[in-house]
């Protein structure tokens, strides 16, 4: 398991938004977190990623106890939420946007990289990686285009590509297909699957559109009122009575 939580708790005053949530995310998997509005999904992810301090329980990332680690520490360890990556620069190309998201950009620490050769090596490696990522995401033919000229699906893929350039090992996506048409939504999920298969990347995804998402993910956790009420394969979750009750309202 790349990520594990053990009885994680987050309270807001008297409200227990995350109530002893224990989950495990397999490395190289796509894991989905579902549940009705207000059930605690965002608060759970915020508590894991260091945006909130937990009121109880533990978080383990890559075998290390990271309970209460701040957001930037989790990011350094490779646990990345796409909002941590600055928004794309609309006047720059797709390639330039990917390059700017690369971590340890020598431009950031001038004195460490006075030698031109280290700049060159760094730049070549970064360009190679960006090209590899653009190929997997099907963005290579747009490499010199400005993001603003592309569709919503491509923008989402650029966002994921930039998370990858930043050295992410696990990416958390908050409703990656919200507001995009079904064709683009399937396209986004197909590329997430490719990243899992070709780069061994792990995803934790919050998504409401189960008709689409369940076709692509490996494992699902269902939350209701701060607790995990079911977990299993997409098939098991689609057949789960309690999950159906919560979603359809009995
Ligand atoms: N900062 C906060 N202060 C107080 N209460 C909060 C705060 N953030 C969330 N809550 C409450 O915690 C509960 C869980 O909210 P959360 O946003 O985590 O749910 P969610 O499952 O992500 O919902 P959605 O699908 O609508 O995004 C809700 O009752 C919400 O009102």
TrEMBL record:
Keyword Amino-acid biosynthesis on entry: no
CDD domains attached to this UniProt entry: ABC_Mj1267_LivG_branched
A molecular function (GO) term: ATP binding
Pfam family, one: BCA_ABC_TP_C
GO biological process: amino acid transport
InterPro entries the record matches: AAA+_ATPase, ABC_AA/LPS_Transport, ABC_transporter-like_ATP-bd, BCA_ABC_TP_C, P-loop_NTPase
Keyword Secreted: no
Function statement: Probable component of a branched-chain amino-acid transport system.
PANTHER family listed in its UniProt record: CONSERVED COMPONENT OF ABC TRANSPORTER FOR NATURAL AMINO ACIDS, CONSERVED COMPONENT OF ABC TRANSPORTER FOR NATURAL AMINO ACIDS-RELATED
Protein name as annotated: Probable branched-chain amino acid transport ATP-binding protein LivG
Originating organism: Korarchaeum cryptofilum (strain OPF8)
